[in-house]
Design brief:
The complex is a heterodimer of chains A (about 675) and B (about 325). With about 675 residues, chain A is an alpha+beta fold. Chain A contains 22 helices and 18 strands. The N terminus of chain B is likely disordered. The chains are: A alpha+beta (about 675), B alpha/beta (about 325).
């Protein structure tokens, strides 16, 4: 006699997909995508010990039949272990590798964690291979995205399309029905579309690197040290500038006046693409209030602005060259090195406010512009050892006809701005970068570090003392009377000593000298985020002003309300869950042991029993599969399983679990456990 | 897809099963086979539907046959009545029917000046309520008491019906003109809703030929007495239901009660019906214990008609049976 059974089309379809995917090994297309992503990681980040090991493990999963069982916790231990190994092995890695946007160590650690997850999915056997495969695909995608976070484009442009190809094929094998009825033309269209999407994705990532990096850094909670953001302690002429700086706000200025060039540090010695002395190698002395706020200033010509230092990890106070007075609003220790034209540093932690008085005269020589002494003159004129004579000739040629120092400065600025264009990236090639920049034909676009260094060196060649300055270029208005300076506004320029005038700012970078060539206003979500941050700060200040009793009362009210709400939630959940989540009355202990062993036999074969399907139906399905050649379950195994199920159910639900029955069940399970997993 | 429940049990176990369950002896199974064959002679190729009808008979539950016209609903009901040597009555539910036409009413006897109660058609063993949705809810309501309690209360007096009492109702879901949808309370009183569907060509051909000279229904002989039916029903109640299986029923039912797309979930009457039907199904398979898969395969016919979808889901194309199937997919079986 037959009885009706359930067959809902969607359910049947899902089961069909499950059954098809029930083979326990990763499809080769998915594995290939993972291997390409691993290769990308190695090619972009340099040699690391783990990626080759991971690659070997992925390949080994095709040879070995051992698996991490889905129903045990083994894979969690493996996962944890791999993560620990990855973190330990990458500890020694420097944080600021020159290949990555943002923190190189964090990038590599994350990429390897994705790779480890991919490997685990290759070795895992679960009741839900579809899920396992999807996790693997996602892990490979994340790995590829992390690996594509690089300046090194030599390999990416070949590897990214290759990865997209395998990804497309992997998704194709994932849902074959999607295309099974498609003609050859359709498949070609699919392939072209995949490649097109890949290329578009690559271009998108390429254009939005800054944003993606910032997002990643936010997610990681990773902060840059100032080495990496253009405020280096000895800046070098690198390949890029500004990209590493995010849109994090550094300064917020109320009543901005004066030169938009906010100085941080100045440097005098240039050698092999680097500027000296380093931040630490200077003679600092405590700066007294009187010193920074001298009384002999003509107050009438001074306008004050308030600068809030919101973030950034530098201890520097930024101020324009025309600064006459400088004072922290909440006094804290400050020291400075006036002989090097700054810097002024403080131990106060952001956020804090300071007030800067700026003279209305453009050539005002204030706190940061010590008159040039005779012994300093040689320092500000020194050229690097073994300096290419072509640069000196070039300087002479540019300034031919210029009589005074001021004219020389103008000639040099005119030459650089007139002949070069701006780019955030410059690949200097071999040898001295500055010489390459100045002598290469055709002239290649570069970023501000090159223009600043070039103007300084060219002027020195013709006897004008100069120094190299790093700081921020303030230009972004944010509401009335407010100017915001972001990390990406980091900038470099130079200052020249003109006899009779003093120190003047030399801005030789084309395109307004702005480090962020992209002038798009901040996005709405960033504004919202910043408003929230400001609100939180105001709230924190409000809290700081409360008395202990007031704080205690507020905390008590919040805790009380939260407690009442939580209790009600708990009560409601408990009532709702009372029926929905109770466990079934368990079978007798020995029967329970036997059924666990029985289920494990099939789980090991990658044919785990779905929890809401009767054993018998699953076995029937496996019998149907036997003919299709997909990991056939042998007839003898199925037969034993059927006998086991009948006896077990009679014992479990019919109360017939006597000694002989249990013994028979035991024999059946042992027989099934001896059945070998067929070779694949 | 169908599964065979008569999978061969090991010899030893079969023997013991029979020995320890006197109520489900061979005689039981034999008698069930007899009536099954009887019905199979009339309704061709509908083994599943017939099995479900018999399961309901064993469980003592009322049957709602729902299908398009001409698929053999009434014939099946009549064949069932003929196969049992009991009293059979039929009510044709017409729009002008009144409650008293169903339950019966008192008549004035002019000879002795007294009132005599004349029993309505419900006083029977098998009641065929044909086209039940063609009468007004007012008249349908006359069946509420008798279907759940087996008693009729008229003019303040309670009258018991002689068991067994079984209502087999038919209705045609495709007609809307001149019909009244059954009230929820009425629907809940049916143990099972069965859909027969069209026969396949092979069986339909057979029907054409057998109906050539006369209706085969006329040849049908009773194979069970009402006492047999009561005995079978008593035997069904001895079928063992392990606690875990009962819990499985509750879990499925509970999923429907938590479902936001439903106006009405499954009532305790519904879980009781599923319990009893699962017992009957196990008994018909020769088992004296219920398996979770008995519950699983009965859930849609026993539960689906009790659900009331909310308006949005109903017009979104969702069917109550989808909800039950989803609940089955969500609920793990007790192992």
């Amino acid at each position: 006699m037959t009885v009706p059974s359930i067959s809902h089309p969607n359910v049947a379809e899902t089961r069909e997909a499950l059954r098809r995917a029930d083979s326990g090994i990763m499809p080769w297309t998915v594995a290939a995508a993972g291997l390409v992503a691993l290769l990308t990681l190695t090619m972009t980040a340099g040699w690391m010990p783990l990626p080759p090991v991971f690659a070997l493990l992925i390949l080994a999963s095709y040879v070995s039949t051992a698996r991490l069982e889905g129903q045990t916790f083994h894979r969690w231990w493996v996962r944890l272990g791999l993560i620990v190994i990855i973190i330990v092995l990458n500890q020694a890695q420097p944080n600021n590798g020159d290949f990555a946007f943002g923190s190189a160590r964090a990038r590599n650690i994350l990429a390897q964690v994705y790779a480890a997850e991919f490997v685990i999915q290759c070795w895992r056997r679960s009741g839900q291979p579809v899920r396992s495969r999807l996790i693997a695909i996602v892990a490979s995608g994340l790995l590829m995205l992390s690996s594509a976070n690089t300046f090194d484009e030599r390999f990416i442009k070949y590897l990214a399309p290759l990865y997209m190809l395998f990804l497309g094929m992997a998704l194709y094998t994932h849902r074959p029905r999607l295309l099974s009825r498609m003609a050859v033309v359709g498949r070609v269209v699919f392939l072209v579309l995949t490649l097109g999407v890949g290329a578009t994705g690559y271009l998108f990532v390429d254009f939005n690197r800054g944003r993606i990096t910032e997002l990643g850094n936010r997610l990681l909670g990773e902060r840059f040290n100032f080495e990496a953001t253009g405020m280096a302690s000895n800046p070098s002429l690198g390949e890029t500038f500004g990209l590493r700086g995010g849109t994090q706000r550094v300064l917020r200025i109320t009543g901005f006046v004066g030169d938009p060039h906010l100085r941080g540090m100045a440097f005098d010695r240039y050698e092999q693409g680097r500027w000296y002395p380093s931040f630490a190698d200077r003679r600092y002395r405590p700066a007294t209030e009187r010193e920074l706020n001298p009384s002999n200033v003509a107050r009438a010509t001074i306008t004050e602005m308030t600068i809030e230092k919101m973030g950034g990890d530098t201890p520097l106070l930024f101020a324009p060259l025309q600064t006459a007075t400088l004072a922290l609003i909440e006094p804290a220790e400050m020291d400075w090195a006036p002989e090097s034209g700054g810097p002024i540093r403080t131990r106060a932690r952001p956020p804090f406010d300071y007030r800067v008085g700026v003279s209305s005269s453009e050539t005002y020589q204030g706190l940061l512009a010590n008159p040039l002494k005779a012994e300093e003159r040689t320092r500000y004129l020194q050229l690097p050892s073994r300096f290419d004579p072509r640069v000196t000739e070039l300087a002479k040629r540019i300034t031919k006809g210029a009589g005074t120092d001021a004219e020389k400065v103008e000639a040099v600025i005119g030459y650089l701005i007139g002949n070069y264009s701006y780019s955030l990236r410059f690949r200097p090639g071999r040898g001295e970068p500055l010489v390459n920049f100045l002598t290469a034909e055709p002239k290649r676009p570069a970023h501000c570090e090159y223009f600043a260094a070039a103007s300084a060196m060219l002027l020195r060649c013709v006897g004008v003392p100069t120094r190299y300055v790093t700081g921020y270029f303030a230009h972004e208005g944010d509401g009335p009377n407010i100017t915001v300076v972001r990390q990406r506004d980091a900038h470099a320029w130079s200052e020249a000593w003109i006899a009779g005038v003093g120190w003047v700012t030399v801005e030789a970078t084309p395109g307004d000298g702005r480090p962020d060539a992209d002038q798009s206003p901040p996005e709405w979500w960033r504004r919202l985020l910043e408003r929230t941050q400001d609100g939180l700060q105001i709230f924190a200040e409000f809290l700081a002003g409360l008395s202990a009793e007031q704080v205690a009362a507020i905390v008590a009210v919040i805790l009380g309300a939260g407690g009442i709400y939580g209790f009600r939630l708990y009560r409601r959940r408990k009532m709702a869950l009372a029926l929905a989540s109770f466990a079934y009355a368990p079978p007798e202990r020995r029967l329970a042991e036997l059924i666990v062993r029985f289920e494990a036999v099939f789980a090991r074969r990658g044919q785990a029993f779905p929890p809401s399907l009767p054993y018998r139906e699953h076995l029937d399905r496996l019998a149907d599969d036997a003919g299709t050649g997909k990991r056939p379950a042998t007839a003898s195994l199925l037969d034993a399983a059927r006998r086991f199920v009948a006896l077990y159910e009679a014992s479990r639900f019919g109360n017939r679990g006597d000694e002989p029955t249990i013994r028979t069940l035991q024999e059946l399970v042992e027989e099934m456990e001896r059945t070998k997993t067929p070779d694949r | 897809m169908t599964i065979t429940t008569t999978a061969p049990l090991p010899e030893r176990l079969n023997a013991r099963a029979a020995a320890s369950a006197p109520g489900l002896s061979e005689a039981f199974v034999r008698r069930v086979r007899l009536i099954e064959e009887n019905l199979g002679r009339i309704i061709k190729g509908k083994g599943e539907g017939i099995a479900m009808v018999l399961t309901a008979l064993m469980a003592g539950g009322h049957i709602l046959l729902e299908d398009v016209p001409g698929t053999g609903k009434t014939t099946l009901a009549k064949a069932l009545a003929r196969s049992i040597d009991g009293e059979f009555r039929r009510i044709q539910f017409t729009p002008d029917l009144l409650p008293a036409d169903v339950t019966g009413t008192s008549f004035y006897n002019p000879r002795d000046g007294s009132f005599t109660f004349r029993e309505g058609p419900v006083f029977t063993n098998i009641l065929l309520a044909d086209e039940i949705n063609r009468t007004s809810p007012r008249t349908q309501a006359a069946l509420l008491e008798v279907m759940s309690e087996g008693t009729v209360t008229v003019e303040g007096q309670r009258r018991d019906l002689a068991p067994p009492f079984l209502v087999v109702a038919t209705q045609n879901p495709s007609d809307y003109a001149g019909t009244y949808p059954l009230p929820e309370a009425q629907l809940d009183r049916f143990a099972v809703r069965i859909t027969l569907g069209y026969p396949d060509p092979e069986h339909e051909l057979e029907v054409l030929f057998t109906h050539n000279d006369h209706h085969p229904l006329n040849d049908l002989q009773p194979v069970l007495t009402t006492a047999d039916v009561l005995e079978l029903q008593a035997a069904v109640r001895t079928v063992r239901v392990e606690r875990a299986v009962a819990e499985y029923i509750l879990r499925i039912v509970d999923v429907t009660r938590q479902d936001g797309r439903l106006r009405l979930g499954i009532s305790p009457r519904g879980s009781l019906a599923l319990y009893r039907m699962a017992q009957a199904r196990a008994a018909m398979a020769g088992r004296d214990f219920v398996l979770p898969e008995d519950v699983r395969s009965l859930a849609v016919p026993v539960l689906a008609h009790r659900l009331q979808l909310d308006t949005k889901s109903r017009y979104g194309g969702l069917m109550p049976s989808h909800i039950i199937e989803e609940a089955l997919e969500k609920t793990p079986l007790p192992r």
